[in-house]
Hints:
The complex is a heterodimer of chains A (380) and B (262). Chain A is an alpha+beta fold and 380 residues long. Chain A has three domains: 7-117, Acyl-CoA dehydrogenase/oxidase, N-terminal domain (Butyryl-Coa Dehydrogenase, subunit A, domain 1, Orthogonal Bundle), CATH 1.10.540; 120-227, Butyryl-CoA Dehydrogenase, subunit A, domain 2, CATH 2.40.110; 230-378, Butyryl-CoA Dehydrogenase, subunit A, domain 3. In chain A, 53% of the residues lie in helices and 15% in strands. In chain A, the strands form three sheets. Chain A has a four-stranded mixed beta sheet with strand order 1-4-5-8. Chain A starts with 6 loop residues before the first helix and ends with a helix. Chain B is α/β, with parallel strands linked by helices and 262 residues long. Chain B has helices spanning 36-52, 68-77, 95-109, 129-137, 191-198, 245-258, and strands spanning 2-6, 9-11, 17-19, 24-26, 32-34, 56-62, 81-85, 112-118, 141-151, 155-161, 166-172, 175-179, 203-205. Classes of the chains: A alpha+beta (380), B alpha/beta (262). Chains A and B meet through helix 1 of A and helix 5 of B. The complex binds flavin-adenine dinucleotide (FAD). Residues 120-124, 129-130, 154-156, 199, 207, 356, 359-363, 365-366, 369 of chain A line the site of flavin-adenine dinucleotide.
Amino acid sequence: MNYFFTExxxxxxxxxxKIAEEKIIPVRQxxxxxxxxxxxxxxxxxxxxxxxxxxxxxxxxxxxxVLPMVLxxxxxxxxxxxIALAYAGTxxxxxxxxxxxxxxxxxxxxxxIANGTLAAFALTExxxxxxxxxxxxxxxxDGDYYILNGTxxxxxxxxxxxxxxxxxxxxxxxxxxxxxxxxxxxxxxxLEFGKKENKMGIRASVTREVVMKDLxxxxxxxxxKEGRGFMLAMKTFDHTRPGVASQALGIAQAALDAAVKYAKxxxxxxxxxxxxQAIQHMFADMGTKIEAARALIYSVARAIDKGSYSPKxxxxxxxLASDVAMEVATNAVQIFGGYGYMKEYPVEKMMRDAKITQxxxxxxxxxRNIIATRIIKETR
Amino acid sequence: xxxxxxVKQVPNTAEVRWDFEKGTLIREGVESICNPFDLYxxxxxxxxxxxxxxxxxxxxxxxxxxxxxxxxxAISMGVDxxxxxxxxxxxxxxxxxxxxxxxxAIEKVGNVGVVLxxxxxxxxxxxxxxxxxxxxxxxxxxxYVRKIAEIDEEKxxxxxxxxxxxxxxxxxxxxxxxxxxxxxxPRLPSLRGKMKARNFKPKLFTSSDLDVDESKIGLAGSPTxxxxxFQPELRKAGEKYEGDPENxxxxxxxxxxxxxxx
Lengths: 380, 262
Ligand SMILES: Cc1cc2nc3c(=O)[nH]c(=O)nc-3n(C[C@H](O)[C@H](O)[C@H](O)COP(=O)(O)OP(=O)(O)OC[C@H]3O[C@@H](n4cnc5c(N)ncnc54)[C@H](O)[C@@H]3O)c2cc1C
């Protein structure tokens, strides 16, 4: 379908696709098997300027925006959802600074990210997943400084990233209204990382704990205003959930592409299996759902870039695309039959990779809660 | 110091088919690409500049106006400038007239440090233009370069690929290198490069811009005559074995025994 991209948007899509095809696909199986963090691919992305596309021009970016980010994440995830996450996770780490950073903070951090420095965003804790307001990490004021103590869990890019946005409680009595966002840097005294999690999918991505032990940080590292950390996190997600959605979309497209190619050459009963209507109808449904997800993601991303965004719409992109990705990847395995279950073929990995998109940046149950609450409120 | 990279637009030979009746290539509908070996030359040109932290990388091509596309591709990879040598008077040039014309263009720009070219073009496959160009420019040449081990503004030490290994060659600058694909992995274009390329217009050199002898350019300057083009008869595919020398020797011995030759 023609989405009438600008010349620049088209360039981003094509370049990301080329990188996926020529650089990511040849290594994806090995990186998945061995859990290799894709520093070589990150270097290619850096050289190709793809880290610049979601950063404003004043900070060495190429304009900024959610749509360019979404296009790149989709194409890179078409190559590998895990490898693409080093990039997408950095976008998640960059958006709080883009949206809420003061000029000094933007000047300090955004050019670094534009030049390929990895970033991360740390909200989740052991007892605060879906219930993110239940975080316990404490930031205690000490003159011009804050002392941070606590442990963040399941943090993408942790240990590999240089720049972290962390949500901590400056006023525990106020609950969610007592949360504040801080920018931390790798190497700060008291900032440590847990062991690498052993995951079902996206195995080329790293997920670790971020541990803060009496970490002393100057108040100039507060991002946005004190007490507004929770709101900052939610607004960040409004901008980045279409990114998770496009990761799902890329995986889904890759699964469909693989299934169609396979079905054309696999013969049973003397015919290619693609000639069976049962298989054809699966393709029809897969293709239709993928295109619907794509159309929604692009529309929402465009709306966000024009200044109109809502938690509902961003949540819709993630629910739709991630459910489609899981369904399409599962059906792709089905179309491959027994071969689909084997690691020599790419679809079992796509099925494992697709699953995470229904879970992180808010589970799909939580997404549906957000969507339903708004629908009920909006309907009179 | 200028680093020149000679590039050529060629038909994507992977897509070209053969017209058996006429005995010619069917070029219609075949996309034009940058000669793949030239991409290695472009990459090496950019790397020399990055290594020396100085220099100006200039891609040049002789061809029809559409050949501008490959100069844009070179720009998107990071080349500084591009020159299109294009004129009806240059048409029909063989390798001699081509290298003569390229030499005149390079002399016009001047300040020659390194001239790079792919080892050959995939359409003509002659591998002649590089060496001829060095002769015309009266500078040393090293062909089939697989590595530039050392380079400064005075001299370079390079490895030249041979059938049996490689030679280490030291040469003064200015020098011409033709490069093989072992030399590097060409980078993908960057977005900023692509944006620059979008608005890029190469410098155009016509025959009147260059100090050329009319009898040495185009068809008039081309002593090569193509007598006949034909497709050699297809040979039956051989059998292929893989393995270590010991096992291969065993297989071979069995085969020879099987043929009752020993
Ligand atoms: C690989 C990976 C990477 C991650 N990266 C990051 C990161 O970079 N930064 C970060 O901050 N976090 C990250 N996370 C954390 C992720 O966002 C959380 O895991 C997710 O929000 C779910 O929280 P939980 O795991 O605690 O599950 P729980 O909240 O315990 O949920 C368990 C189940 O209960 C359901 N549930 C919970 N509450 C409700 C409700 N009210 N209504 C209906 N159903 C409900 C959930 O939908 C789910 O099915 C990552 C997680 C993973 C696995």
